[in-house]
Design a protein that fits this description.
This protein is α+β, with helices and mostly antiparallel strands. It folds into two domains: about 70 residues, Double Stranded RNA Binding Domain (2-Layer Sandwich); about 90 residues, Ribosomal Protein S5, domain 2, CATH 3.30.230. Helices cover about 25% and strands about 35% of the residues. The protein contains four helices and eight strands; from the N terminus they run βββαββββαβαα. The strands form two sheets. The chain has a four-stranded antiparallel sheet. The chain has a four-stranded mixed sheet with strand order 5-6-8-7. A hairpin with a 2-residue loop joins strand 5 and strand 6. The longest helix has 13 residues. It starts with 16 loop residues before the first strand and ends in a 9-residue tail after the last helix.
Amino acid sequence: MAYVPVKRVDAGSLNLKEQVVSINRVTKVVKGGKNMSFSALVVVGDPSARVVGFGTGKAKEVPSAIKKGIEAAKKNLRKINVLERTILHPVLGRFGAGLVLLKPAPEGTGVIAGGPVRAVIQSVGIPNVLTKSIGSHNPHNVVKATIAALAQLRDRGEVAEMRGLAQEKVSA
């Protein structure tokens, strides 16, 4: 797949909601003993603007790691093309050994997703979607695979422009 440059989204004008996906205690063994620190994976998004981003933060204490993760996530925001109630078409996102399958769902289905995938889907604000996480269950890879899958979604106008057709000629 060809590289598509991501347009920067300004975090100042959005109503972002943060969600901590995982917190990991990391220990470094040194001559004087063990140095403990924490790593946090955070997803931020604005459901009304259909914007999502993720970030990681590392610090000696959990609150500062979460704060750093939120700041990193705000620098990594991207716009997602979705319908009002679900996604446009099935997509498969891959990052490392993590695969995430996203499928459109009818009204009333809700978000059928596990931990890290659910955090990303809820941050984007998609009310009805079916998901399946395949392969690696590492939260970092699953979050990145989910965002890679969401980045593959195209709206009808974009597909028509790529194919050189009128928007009415592109099937749903």
